[in-house]
Structure formats: structure tokens, C-alpha cells
Amino acid sequence: MDQAPFSLVDHSAIRTNQAVIILLVVLSFIFNLPALVGLLGAALLLGTLAKRPAFGFLYQRALKPLGWVRPDVLRDHPEPHRFAQGFGSAVLLVAAAALWAGASTAGWALAWLVAALAGLNLFAGFCAGCAMYYWLNRLHVPGFAHRPPEGVFPGMRPGSRG
Predict the structure, then answer these.
(1) Model's pTM, two decimal places?
(2) Of residues 3, 116, 17, 2, the one with CA closest to residue 58
(3) Is residue 41 part of a domain?
(4) What's the confidence (pLDDT) of residue 17?
């Protein structure tokens, strides 16, 4: 059962986060920079611990004030998005470790998986990490207290057609 009311979540900040993740994974692959994969994983971890999108500052301090990206504030729970970011962080940190250990196929596959899932969220409005969070809620796993908004498929952005 849901323990808290919905908050107002700016999905433009989340989409900015997804775009930066994709960009940095692509750049790290093109220039063969495993360290950038590790830094990206660490940035996502710090964002998760700070309870903010890791690259939300870019949206708040540059893109939004310049009018390049408009706010998209929706009634939603921030916790599933935070879980998704933390999970992405963990996968990227494992990817970086694999790359440093010489398992480049596994490392790049994991990094590209995170980029692909970020793209799915950015372009289709489906957050796989959020869906995992909501499925764990349905299984009554402690700590996963929120259900998706009424009438919204788990993982779909509220207001999306799913």
C-alpha cells in the first residue's frame, strides 16, 4: 500500500539526465574511455544519494533558464526514478570494473545496456528501473512502498500513452 502522497516531479530534469547518460556512454565508447564510464557511474551514485538527478544541475542552471528545455512537472513519486538511477549507477560501475579488468565485451555491453534503457526512457517515456521498483512493490519487498499513479502502466511516465 502507498505510504506517501505524490510529489511534484520535473520530468524534464529526468530526461536531461537520460540525454547526458547516453551522450557520455557514446563518447566513452568512441574514445575508449573506461574511466568516463566509471565517472558516470559515480556521478549517478552521488545523484542517487543526494536524491536528485545526477545531471539535474545542467537542466536547472543552464537549459531551463535559457529556455531550451521547459519544465514538465507531473504528480509522481521520485523514489522509483531514484531507484532507476541507482541501479544504472551500479551497472555502470560493474561495466567500468569489467573494462578495467580486460573484459571489454562485457563492460561495453553493460554500458550500452544503460544507454539503451536511458534512451527508452528519454524517447518512449518508459523507465525500466521504475517498472522494476513497482514490480518489487507488488511483491511486497520492504522499502518499495509506492504504487504507480492510477491508470499508468508501471514504468510509463504519467501522461504518456502506454
Answers:
(1) 0.90
(2) 17
(3) yes
(4) 97
